[in-house]
Design brief:
A hairpin with a 4-residue loop joins strand 3 and strand 4. By secondary structure, this protein is mostly helical. The protein has twelve helices and four strands; from the N terminus they run αβαβαββααααααααα. It has a four-stranded mixed sheet with strand order 2-1-3-4, sandwiched between helices. It has two domains: about 100 residues, Glutaredoxin; about 160 residues, Glutathione S-transferase Yfyf (Class Pi), Chain A, domain 2 (Up-down Bundle), CATH 1.20.1050. The longest helix has 30 residues. Helix 5 runs parallel beside helix 10 and helix 10 crosses helix 12.
């Protein structure tokens, strides 16, 4: 009897072990920078769709090495590692998430007006997302680099964190060059964001709750997450303690009651 029990429990624990191993192998891993609004978009979408995933914060530089190892076509985060492939980019991650069997049935791609939702997502990804990053870094990284470093080292293991702390000056120089940062560039980006906010203000001027149709969609999650660095919503998982540099803070103070930014705050409160 006791031998039977021992064999039975060994078999049972082997099954449990195999199950844990299988779950670990099939659970996707999302690689992110804590500061990145594109990463927030992908992370929010996975959370919203109830996808089980592991989160891995990566350091600047390290993100390129991992992207290469995984076979990503480019270097940028977010990317999602699956068992036998990788998906790079927030829009493709959302599309993949809705195609898996394990999502909770909520949808981010609407049944009607898909093109409208995707067009809004693409425009905010390509324009406001890029220029908001340049607007913020052109002041924060160039003039106050030490205020940016903590969010880049947040949640990193010590051995990954130390090289970022030691090499922060070099990392800032590379980022300045790659994103073309500077006072004048920041002003150019500010004007572009102003125009993009006017576009969203206009879309919302008929009193609609959601940008496309009457349901929360990928258009909403894209606009809200990519504008979130202006609003720093309390529901954002990584922005606690992040502050705007002075000129950006003064500009945001003049924008904060715009319909677009009020809407971002409301959407975060309701859906994040
Ligand atoms: N369109 C892409 C943009 C991603 C992106 O620009 N990521 C930035 C962080 S905000 C990045 O990883 N930059 C570093 C690099 O390109 O190597 C998306 O939606 O995922």
């Amino acid at each position: 009897m006791s031998q039977y029990f021992t064999e039975f429990s060994a078999a049972a624990s082997a099954t449990v072990y195999q199950r844990i191993l299988a779950a670990m192998m099939t659970t996707p891993t999302l690689y992110i920078f804590a500061i990145s609004h594109y990463c927030e978009k992908a992370r929010w979408a996975l959370d919203y769709l109830g996808i089980d995933y592991r989160l891995r914060y990566v350091a600047p530089g390290e993100h390129m090495k991992i992207a290469k190892q995984l076979g990503c076509p480019g270097t940028s985060v977010p990317y999602l590692e699956l068992e036998n492939r990788v998906i790079q980019g927030s829009a493709d991650i959302i599309t993949w998430a809705e195609s898996t069997r394990s999502f909770n049935g909520k949808r981010l791609t609407p049944d009607a007006d898909i093109e409208k939702a995707v067009a809004i997502e693409k425009r905010i990804d390509d324009i406001a997302g890029v220029h908001l990053r340049r607007f913020y870094y052109s002041e924060a990284l160039v003039e106050h680099p030490s205020t940016v470093r903590p969010i880049f080292t947040k949640n990193l293991p010590l051995l990954t964190k130390l090289p970022v702390i030691i090499g922060w000056g070099k990392i800032c120089s590379i980022m300045k060059k790659r994103m073309d940062l500077g006072k004048q560039q920041g002003e150019e980006s500010q004007a572009i964001i102003d125009a993009e906010l006017a576009w969203i203000d206009d879309l919302l001027s008929d009193g609609r709750a959601y940008l496309v149709g009457n349901r929360f969609s990928r258009a909403d999650i894209s606009v809200a997450s990519l504008l979130s660095p202006l609003v720093l919503p309390e529901q954002h998982p990584s922005y606690v303690g992040l502050a705007h540099p002075p000129r950006l803070a003064a500009t945001v103070a003049t924008w904060v009651e715009r319909p677009s930014l009020r809407w971002v705050r409301d959407v975060y409160a309701k859906h994040r």
